[in-house]
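BACKBONE GEOMETRY TOKENS
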Amino acid sequence: MNTNGIADVYASQIAANDKTNPAAKTNKTYGKQIGNPQLSEKAQKYYEKLKKKYKNMDFILVSADQKEQAEANVGKYGSNKSLIVLIDDEKIEKMAEDESYRKKYEGILDKATGQFAQMKESLGSNADSVKAFGMKFDDYGNASFFAVVDKSLAAQKDRIQQKHDQKIADKKAAEKKAEQKEKQDKILEKHKRPEDLVTVEASSWDDLLQKINETVAMGRSDMVQSQAETYVGQQFDYTI
């Protein structure tokens, strides 16, 4: 009976659990993460350097088995102040070991820094309707971009602007209306409909910009339609 194969497997398992071995992977937290990602000591050090190098980005380390789950819930992981970067532990391992692979991915991150700033500037006021911006990589080194858009924010902003532009003779009545509206907005925010949050994806920043603007416009259109529907069969007291 040949036991060499069994011995080799056993030796590799010992090496994987040996904390003094740079290639050993350990269970540990790496900042923001999804699932149970594991990195070798070398990959851990590289990952920390990567996060420091791109301080304007919000890295989220994902275990390989949780990639689909992470992409499905991107809106929960960040804000529109920084660019979310979803990256799995397998890619970090390879980036730590393979210089050409690392340069390819870091080159994409370098470009994204300026592209993200330009994107927000191009969106103008529509940027306020985006809850999160992000990017991810496939297994072939291609980057794609995504944004989580809250359609209700665009409609809400329009309502506020319309209210601001109105000339209200009675100041006390205006203050009372504003107070009532503020309470209503808080209730709406607390019970926000899932359909208000839309995740759009694109293979380029230009396409993402277009899809965000289209989604925000759709939110405004929905607001106009829903308001028209509520007018049917209702009476209003304009003395409030």
About this structure: Confidence is low (pLDDT under 50) at residues 2-24, 225-240. The first helix runs from residue 4 to 17. The longest strand covers residues 130-137. The radius of gyration is 25 Å.
